[in-house]
Amino acid sequence: MQFVKYHAAGNDYLVYHDDTPFDFSTPAISVICDRHKGVGSDGILVPVIEPGKMLSVRIFNTDGSEAEKSGNGLRILCRYLWDQGIVTDEAFELATKGGKVHCQVLDHGRRISIAMGMAAFPETERHAVDVDGMQLQLNPVSMGNPHCVVFVEQPTETLARRFGPIIEHLALFPNRTNVQFVNVVDRRNLTVQIWERGVGYTLSSGTSSCAAAAVSHRLGFVDDQVTVHMPGGQITIELDEAYNVLMQGPVCKIGRYWLDQECLSQIG
């Protein structure tokens, strides 16, 4: 069983690179992604490449749940497809559970640009909620997957780890949610810490960057071009008047891994 590992702004994924069907169980996915007992990653990407059909991908979180969309994961998949000679530097389309995206490989695979679709805002755009004794303003938004943007004076890992898992499981979000803790630096820059649904604390997230920029722009805090700064790196976001989001960010190849069957014998 082979995987190719990449990271996108510190958010790392394994791409399944094998001729046999991907049929791993939820416990197996968790072991493979475990950083001490397995290969280690923030998730697994499974390309679906069928003649005559649009390229598509399945995205698995570390807890085995399947995600609708992942901005960093999609950039990584684009790089993988480019490395395999399946796509070129011409624009192409890719299908996800969270909708179709338009992709282009730049800078010899080092950067990827993806039109991520439209940010969708609910009818009630803000919710004042007591979370672990602190009053927070929650700003839900969808990028094809659920997000909740929380503006704070100083985003920290400690803050994300404390409040992220609580917000993720609030009844307000029946399918759970990704959570972004955001500080507006100026009209073109945001700093963000992220709690990712089904993964936990993570160094960066593409769809989280899109969500943070979209909500910040809708509230008048930033312009239509924003750089999102996260512990793992930076992603640039552009928004049009309809809140269609264009994301651009880096990808780095780490290496190829062969998973031994013995690894999966730990399940139990």
TrEMBL record:
Alphabetized UniProt keyword annotations: Amino-acid biosynthesis, Cytoplasm, Isomerase, Lysine biosynthesis
Cross-referenced InterPro entries: DAP_epimerase_DapF (IPR001653)
Molecular function GO labels: diaminopimelate epimerase activity
Compartments where located: Cytoplasm
E.C. designation(s): 5.1.1.7
Catalytic activity: (2S,6S)-2,6-diaminopimelate = meso-2,6-diaminopimelate
Positions with a binding annotation for substrate: N11, N61, G71, N72, N145, N178, E196, R197, G206, T207
Main localization, broad class: cytoplasm
Residues with site note (Could be important to modulate the pK values of the two catalytic cysteine residues): H147, E196
Source superkingdom: Bacteria
Isomerase listed as a keyword: yes
EC supergroup of this enzyme: isomerase
Protein's pathway: Amino-acid biosynthesis; L-lysine biosynthesis via DAP pathway; DL-2,6-diaminopimelate from LL-2,6-diaminopimelate: step 1/1
Signal peptide: none
Family: Belongs to the diaminopimelate epimerase family.
PANTHER family associated with the record: DIAMINOPIMELATE EPIMERASE (PTHR31689:SF0), DIAMINOPIMELATE EPIMERASE, CHLOROPLASTIC (PTHR31689)
NCBIfam families: DapF
Role noted for this protein: Catalyzes the stereoinversion of LL-2,6-diaminopimelate (L,L-DAP) to meso-diaminopimelate (meso-DAP), a precursor of L-lysine and an essential component of the bacterial peptidoglycan.
Oligomer and partners: Homodimer.
Name listed for the protein in its UniProt record: Diaminopimelate epimerase
Annotated source species: Pseudomonas oryzicola
This protein's encoding gene: dapF
